[in-house]
Design goal:
five-stranded mixed β-sheet; 11 helices; 13 strands; Nucleotidyltransferase, domain 5; alpha/beta; 2 domains
């Protein structure tokens, strides 16, 4: 265990997912970068409506940009807005928890992913998360770690998923190992499996909430399928589902990762609202089953975290399509909505103490790699022009 100044300090983690649900997840975690000492306050802080629209515009411009030429000017506007709003979320959480800024050793600031290209045989990977870490550090007077994925990709990795080492810490605390897999259902679904010793495996299983949310919005029925009500009222076209499951991604060996837009809502094109939601929900669950079959040992139970676990239809589909025991994070004493934010608090502390967060078997990086860039409060200067 790391000793000294790191033991009794808090870390704050921030996460906004690719599902674009309009919320900032912010959590306190007491950790030395290895053990989870204590879980502190957690909050879901809504973005301002104009910020959500700004992020949607950034996502659209990123699709046109595709890492070709200068990045869209809108990104700089969004980076500043994201940093300031998330700084407010951190300050509010600390006030609620009765902590001073001096009680916090580091903030893990994931930022907003707008584009992610995994490495291929001919091209290195590229990724872009929006968020001004130096501005946040200056605003709050607390060191900030952000840009968690770039070093991994520079080292030949996919830059994702990064949650594996935190999932391992949670499983260790729970006393669970090879019989259990952790499934996170955000915009994309990713899984973590640990043998209880030295073997840790993680990869993106397939799409999750992103195409489902986009389809509901496309159909003018809101921003997501609340509690799975549309999917539960629809029927699954099994022939169409089987065709979707022939996608080449499922034949790739891990480590592997996905961009939010690799699987789009158009998979349900031509379907009614209910049937389309049923199809996309079943597809997510069936993709998870394919992922489980690739693990060194097929697990007996799935612990589900992330927003997708609130979807009744999704949880039912997972049980049906995987034939495994499916548990919500809360059933084992975890805070399912807080886990991703906690993860980046944990990763930030690992960065501060010089511990790696990505590994050859989790991201495909050449060697264990320390994640992120550290920004100190005194290191910020306002860019020229604004």
């Amino acid at each position: 265990m790391v000793s000294g100044q790191w033991e009794d300090k808090w870390a704050v983690g921030l996460m906004t997912g690719t599902a674009l649900d309009g919320n900032i997840d912010v959590a306190l975690l007491q950790t030395d970068g290895q053990q989870i000492v204590h879980s502190g306050n957690y909050a879901l802080a809504p973005y301002q409506p104009q910020t959500i629209e700004l992020l949607k515009q950034c996502h659209q411009q990123a699709l046109d940009w595709q890492f070709r030429g200068a990045e869209p000017a809108l990104f700089a506007v969004a980076e500043k807005q994201i940093a300031l709003e998330q700084s407010t979320a951190v300050a509010d959480l600390l006030q609620t928890a009765g902590l001073s800024h001096g009680d916090v050793q580091v903030i893990g600031f994931h930022g907003q992913t707008v584009l992610h290209h995994p490495p291929s045989a001919n091209n290195p990977g590229q990724t872009r998360q929006l968020g001004a870490g130096a501005l946040m550090a200056a605003t709050l007077g607390i060191p900030v770690v952000n840009d968690f994925r770039s070093a991994d990709m520079t080292g030949g990795g996919h830059g994702a998923p990064l949650s594996a080492i935190y999932h391992q810490a949670l499983l260790s605390q729970l006393g669970a190992a090879a019989e259990t897999v952790v499934l996170n259902l955000g915009g994309v679904a990713n899984i973590t499996w640990w043998d209880g010793a030295d073997q840790l495996v993680a990869f993106d299983a397939g799409p999750a909430n992103a195409p489902l949310n986009d389809f509901v919005e496309h159909m003018g029925a809101g921003s997501y399928d609340e509690n799975g009500k549309f999917a539960l009222a629809g029927g699954v076209d099994e022939h169409r589902l089987s065709q979707l499951l022939t996608h080449e991604y499922f034949d790739l060996v891990y480590p592997k990762s996905l961009d939010r837009c690799d699987f789009s809502w158009s998979m349900a094109s031509g379907c009614s609202l209910n049937d389309g939601c049923a199809l996309l929900t079943a597809f997510c669950a069936a993709a998870v089953n394919k992922a489980l079959e690739r693990l060194p040992q097929v697990p007996e139970q799935i612990i589900v975290c992330g927003g997708g676990r609130h979807n009744v239809a999704m949880m039912q589909a997972l049980e049906t399509r995987t034939t495994k025991r499916v548990l919500s994070a809360e059933a084992v004493g975890w805070r399912g909505d807080a886990i991703e934010a906690e993860c980046f608090a944990y990763l930030a502390m690992r960065t501060m103490v010089g511990l790696p967060s990505s590994f050859p078997v989790t991201t495909g990086v050449d060697a264990p790699t320390i994640a992120g860039v550290i920004h100190t409060p005194s290191g910020y200067s306002e860019p020229m022009g604004g």
